[in-house]
Amino acid sequence: MINRIFLTAFLAVALMSQNGAWAQEPKNEEEAAEVALQEIEVRAAVRREELLSTSATVLENADLADRVFVQPLDMIKLSPGTSITQYGESGIAPAFTVRTFSAGHGGGDVTMYLDGIPLHDNGHADGYLDTGLIMPIEIERMEIIKGPSSVYYGQRAAGGALPIETIKGGNLTRLNLRYGSYNNMTATGLLAREQGDLSHVYAFETFHTDGWRDHSEWDKKNFSARWTYKVNEKFTTSLNVRTYQADWDSAGYIPYRLHLSPTTAVDDGSGQYNGGKRDRYDGRLWANYFINDNSQLTFYLYGTTLDHTRWQLAGYPANSTGPGTGTGGNGTEQFNTHKSYGSGLSYNFKGEVADREATVTVGVSYANEAEVRETYELPFGGGRKRGLHNSDRDFDVVTKSIFGEATYQILKPLHVRLGARYDMLGGDNTDNLAGTSQSSPTYKEFSPKAGLLYTPLDWLQIYANYGHGFSMPGLTYGTTFYEGGIYDLTQRDQYELGYRAALTDWIDLEMAAYLIYTKNDVTYDEQTNTSSPVGESKRRGLEASLAMRPWENWRLTGNYTYQDAKTTRGGSAAVSTNGRRLTNIPRHISNLELAYAPTEGLGGRVSFRWEADALLRDPSPVRRDGTPNYTYGPTGASDLVSAPYKAQDKGTLDMQLSYRFNENYRLVLDVLNVLDKEYYGSQGAPAYNLAGIYDFTYSIQPPRTFYLGLEMNWD
User: Fold this and answer.
1) Is the pLDDT assigned to residue 525 strictly greater than 80?
2) Quick count: other Cβ atoms within 10 Å of Cβ 131?
3) Beta-strand pair 160-166/110-114
4) Which percentage of the chain shows pLDDT scores above 90?
5) Which pTM value belongs to this model?
6) Which residues lie closer than 8 Å to 681 by C-beta, 6 or more apart?
7) Whether residue 12 has pLDDT greater than 50
8) Domain coordinates of the chain in residue numbers?
9) How far is it, in rounded angstroms, from Cα 2 to Cα 153?
10) Which residue, 28, 49, 512, 518, has fewest beta-carbon neighbours within 10 Å?
11) Residue 355 backbone class (left: φ over 0; alpha: ψ -120 to 50; beta: rest)
12) 711, 272 in Cβ contact below 8 A?
């Protein structure tokens, strides 16, 4: 069915573009240059028209390459409406949110692609997204797409999409060296050359840190290469390869009640167990064929393989106020192997229809993800030696998609965008130890998209859009979407209105307001230890940005986000969570930065970020029969969680001082967390443990940290 739909749409559009019913031939070379297509690299998308009718943020290489990031994912904090939760555990991927939807190590509602290859692990409990293989020096463009507004992304994109494109060619030579506190050493480089019809680009990164806490060493190595060959004026093809290797030790989370020094404390009392390693290899083949000046075909094929090992102790044993001394199993090793491949084909048109600007894209894609997850017991005192084989599961998911979108200039200042995608996905879950297997239903989801862009004045753009998205339920409390089909796809509907204004040559303003409604959220009732797929929630927010260039080489930027997320329907038959705020969502996020970047001499910048008013636990409503709701109680007792527990507000100040010798060399001193403020990355809500002690675990973020770097650019 999906093939018949695609072929019908594809042939119709292709015939119209060939016979001129859609595309008017350019009248001269200048006009031809204006309407000619760019080569489509990643998801077979003509993106500019789509992004203009949304609040998406686009970051270029110059925005990213000269900054220090604790983890590469920190880049998204340059866009309003985003938040990062660093676990502070070396190579462990952080969690993050886009418009309150979680991803990374905290959920699967935001997708991320690097040169068209998805970065997610399929079988991990929350759609694990490791961004350690991203090298800012090679990024050409990063898009931060908010909500389900884009037609080019389906599964895991209900809350947004973060596609990244790397540099495709040119004659570039760049090398960055950096040394910092705690023996932090980083070297990154980029080499690009154009030799006739062949372009080749190479990038590398080597990184080491001892970590600011004991037992927090982290090493990683990255390498990528791209070869692009122009066969003739109509046909271009490229091959991309990438390798990523990381090893780390993790000190773990600290129980608050122990009051240990965060620099020396480790959660298992020994520091010799926690850690992990990852080995990943990616490859992608891409081809582009120009049918004429207004239309093209794009094809891609990718494959990836990943081995991931995670050693983790269970923390301090019950009834203990110090290092554990038990003799039984005190932790686990989780070993994942992940293999995936996918392909796609699209037709793209950009030109004029009836003397009006128009674009059309139709395409199909296929993805196959297979993951094996094994867990082993770590006997206490045995280091990382495997013990009992606890579990061995295979997870397989296949996704088939068709998508299409068209934009049209109805009036000179008014463009309309209409699109949709249709996804079919499902998979199998095999328990190799038990010898059993389950299959999910074949989920089918139609996702319409629409947008308007109105430009009444040269300096003002007003836009509005609607987008429907979905996510497949993840692994939650031991249950999966495979089990009997009880979990439907989560549904997301976003409504957005905003504007962009260039008030003068040196002042730009942006503002966006949104409403997002969700259905089929999986909610968890702590009282009954059960999960339910009946959850519904409402999200609303306002994002505002300001950019000023008051003097030459000076730039002042700032943004503010207000966001609110509440459950509108949830809980169990016994307990309602209606009206309850979603946890770990800051209501207020602010960024302010002042930068001075001269062509030579002293420069620098000061950046301040504030996140506030997040809850770790909202007041638990009464049970449906009117009695109080009790939870988190130790044996023989109960803890009434009627009071909220507020997360720590986070305020950080970072500074950079630089000296540019000339266009080729720049010396840089970065200081992160200048005020040396102690703040939590991850923080759990207080609860009774089995010993009857009221405590919580937390992860303190690094103290004030210095980095000295030398940037060399011989472009």
Assistant:
1) no
2) 21
3) parallel
4) 50
5) 0.88
6) 85, 86, 87, 88, 94, 699, 700, 701
7) no
8) 2-713
9) 17
10) 28
11) left
12) no
